[in-house]
Write a structure and sequence with these properties.
about 450 residues; Beta-lactamase; 7-stranded mixed β-sheet; about 35% helix; globular
């Protein structure tokens, strides 16, 4: 091994010496030869190995193609539609894939999404702009949790109710002007009891005023891609121009679910404030009855009708069901329950298991002969019930790579396939940087080997 290493280093030194002895009149010719050699080297270093599980034939792909494919995959929208037209022109559901009949939803609009993959499983007028009532508070809760996590406010802080906040009416906890309450209790009131006054207390603290907070709400909505939304207040009381859509409610619901503290509140059926003097009862009655329910928010006003964003998890699959504009509360909860049943009855979330997570790739012209590479986190795939094993993996990785190699450089990928369709991919990246061998580094390596 030592002799081989010395020979490799010597070859580099000889090459550098030969290059330095070329006269200037021959450099053009030498450059042409070098270009041809470079082309040959590029062909060698971009060779790749492809395999799949189960094995399928595929053309070898170069490292540049791998990088391009991975980039294209990462730029896909985070919410994708898998729906096919159903009986109604205004609603869509993927019945053909699962064999499960889509529910009839008596609401103005609705949507069902698997939260991890962002796959839309059912929708009905999902982009229709409608008044949202108190499901507005999903955004208020989201911004409040972000303020807590950033340290702007603390759970133990005492906030003071203004006269404006105390004047809200509707569902509230009857806060008095100048009354103080902890952030924890105010969040309980907002998340469990849908308290309008508590929501405005948070709005004034975080935004400086309710209008200031509404600006933050609309900015966040834009960031999340909520293109059907315009907020006017922090609690969802009817107001001209205060609208959103089932699709947008789904987007902000998915975002709120990323903050695990929300589950400490929205899953609670009953609680109390003021030392037991004020009782809170969750406005989401699915908390008591639906298997796997873990949120999220209800709302109802004269203009909005009855609305809900219902979230539930079973076997690692998180669903978000939103209905807006139901005629009554019973229809609202039955519709949400039917949508969740449809999702859990028709799909499973599959997390493919890696057979190999580490690879070693040869490095050409580098200060090291090989570089290790690691597979990133495998994405979850949504599969129809009974077809969980239909998801297959295909490996594509270069056998050689030319120096220099950067840490994190994509040198391969694993693609996931289902029924002939690419449903996901994960990059294989170099674990460290490998510098290109220079005359100086080659000379130092030679001296080092001789010294040993």
């Amino acid at each position: 091994m030592k002799i081989k290493a010395i020979a490799a280093v010597m070859s580099v030194l000889v090459a550098f010496t030969a290059m330095s002895c070329v006269v200037s009149g021959e450099q053009t010719k030498s450059g042409s030869a070098s270009s041809q050699a470079g082309s040959s080297s590029s062909t060698a270093t971009s060779s790749s190995v492809t395999s799949s599980k189960p094995m399928t034939s595929s053309k070898p792909s170069t490292s540049s193609k791998i990088a391009d494919s991975q980039s294209a995959s990462s730029n896909k929208s985070s919410v994708t539609k898998t729906t096919a037209s159903s009986k109604s022109s205004s609603s869509q559901a993927d019945e053909s894939t699962t064999g499960v009949a889509a529910p009839n939803i008596p609401a103005k609009s609705a949507i069902l999404v698997e939260a991890t993959t962002g796959k839309v499983l059912y929708e009905k007028n999902s982009h229709e702009k409608l008044p949202p009532a108190s499901i507005t508070k999903i955004m208020t809760e989201l911004l409040t949790l972000e303020a807590i996590e950033s340290g702007k406010i603390k759970w133990t802080d005492k906030l003071t109710c203004s006269a404006h906040a105390a004047s809200m009416g509707g569902s509230d906890i009857w806060l008095e002007p100048n009354e103080q309450m902890s952030v924890t209790d105010l969040f309980k009131a907002m998340a469990i009891g849908s308290a309008n006054d508590a929501a405005v207390v948070f709005a004034e603290k975080i935004g400086g005023s309710e209008p200031g907070f509404v600006n933050l709400m609309n900015q966040k909505a834009k960031t999340l891609g909520m293109n059907d939304t315009h907020f006017v207040n922090a609690n969802g009381l009817d107001a001209d121009g205060h609208v959103t859509s089932a699709y947008d409610v789904m987007l902000m619901s998915r975002e709120l679910l990323k903050h695990k503290a929300i589950f400490n509140y929205c899953t609670v059926w009953m609680d109390t404030l003021r030392g037991g003097k004020t009782q809170l009862v969750n406005t989401n009655r699915l908390i008591r009855f639906y298997d796997g329910i873990n949120g999220l928010k209800t709302g109802s006003t004269g203009k909005a009708g009855y609305c809900v964003s219902a979230t539930a998890m079973r076997d690692g699959m998180q669903l978000v069901a939103v209905t807006m504009g139901s005629d009554n509360s019973t229809d609202r909860f039955n519709s949400a329950s039917d949508l969740l049943d449809y999702g859990f009855g028709g799909w499973s979330l599959v997390k493919p298991v890696l057979t190999q997570s580490k690879f070693t790739v040869n490095v050409q012209g580098g200060e090291e002969y090989t570089v290790n590479a690691t597979v990133g986190e495998m994405p979850a795939v949504l599969a129809p019930k009974g077809k969980e094993k239909s998801v297959t993996q295909k490996l594509s990785i270069v056998t050689d790579v030319a120096a220099p190699v950067e840490k994190g450089q994509v040198i391969g990928q694993i693609t996931l396939w289902q029924d002939g369709k690419n449903v996901g991919s994960v990059a294989i990246k170099a674990d460290k940087t490998v510098a290109k061998m220079s005359f100086g580094s080659a000379f130092r390596m030679l001296i080092g080997y001789i010294a040993k």
